[in-house]
């Protein structure tokens, strides 16, 4: 069965749902393919910088985020062993939204997905992409239901890759089977109740062989997330054979950082530790790739800056603004038009986000070495303004999105797109 659309989006995380909302509101026929059931937990630091709040308002989830999210994030800290340095976070220029918040991905992703559905986007969930063929202007995407293995083939002139770091598209899966390296980084995350982390504080953890962060998010839950080098994780496993990786990482964090140990003194973990990786920071946009890419599918920074959510939301809005220049009638199927869109998007993406990738990489590598981590804390204690300036350079207060280019069309009303997906064999 073949179904014609204007755009097919792979992935319903913050990037995919943002693009679906904006395109569907403009009258495009949009389908989103997402293989996970929502709500679902995900390895993520869960911080939403203040720079994103006007965009989230425009997407229709701002009020819910403010009602459900954690306390305003007003301070940042570096924690290394028994030393720490604390500084003010910079306030955003928009006086209505000066401070960032933290909210669980299971909450934020569901809010955005429901807005996309209300805007008229069709959700194929849980469905997985089996194959993508064709070229710009004439794509064919084969998808299969996770629930009953039925399949369908969708056609559209535009395909947007918004898949996550650890969920590569079919053509890219062999690339993930790269050689193992001692420097590979694995990400871990757990939630805790009754932790004693100071509200409104965003600590960055400098660890021997890794880095991490803590934050108080929605419902009073404290999120603890980190990245650890493969060789450090293997050493922990060898020292305690048979122990689970999550338990090893939790003990390592408390041993390495007094701030973590004190915050978790009487805390109770909520659910299991989540793990993913190895992470692969870098730029994935390619000049010869006909797919349009947003979120981690376009590029990924070391998560030490907590800018993953910003890059997902803002890159989706940036691309949507370019696509909407085609007007509410839908996309131009001409491949040349799409090459121009892709080229402009890639140039803007690199201009806006490459500095963050470079800053995050430098910070991450400094955080994982004891001597440089101690130097970073000493510098921050001597001059706390350096931390504030670093947060500003890291994108916490400035958005890459022109909200004027994303105005909701006059007279817009949500209208569902009825796709009857027939089984095919």
The class by helix and strand makeup works out as: alpha/beta
Residue share in helix: 25-40%
CATH homologous superfamily of the domain at 2-69 and 101-175 and 281-358 and 400-406?
FAD/NAD(P)-binding domain
State the CATH architecture of the domain at 2-69 and 101-175 and 281-358 and 400-406.
Answer: 3-Layer(bba) Sandwich
Number of strands: 20
- What is the CATH level 1 assignment of the domain at 2-69 and 101-175 and 281-358 and 400-406? Alpha Beta
Number of helices: 11
Strand content: 15-25%
Judging from the principal axes of the Cα atoms, what is the shape?
Answer: globular
Query: Could you please say which CATH topology of the domain at 2-69 and 101-175 and 281-358 and 400-406 applies here?
Result: FAD/NAD(P)-binding domain
Distance between the termini: 10 Å
Features:
425 residues, alpha/beta, FAD/NAD(P)-binding domain, seven-stranded mixed β-sheet, five-stranded parallel β-sheet, 11 helices, 33% helix, 24% strand, disordered C terminus
What does this protein structure show overall?
The protein is α/β, with parallel strands linked by helices and 425 residues long. The chain has a domain at 2-69 and 101-175 and 281-358 and 400-406: FAD/NAD(P)-binding domain, CATH 3.50.50. The chain contains eleven helices and 20 strands. The protein has helices at 14-25, 53-59, 62-68, 105-119, 230-239, 245-256, 258-263, 308-323, 335-367, 370-382, 385-393, and strands at 2-4, 7-10, 30-33, 47-48, 75-80, 83-88, 101-102, 122-124, 127-135, 138-145, 151-156, 158-161, 185-193, 201-207, 210-216, 222-229, 268-276, 282-283, 292-293, 299-300. Strand 5 and strand 6 form a beta hairpin. The model is unreliable at 410-425 (pLDDT under 50).
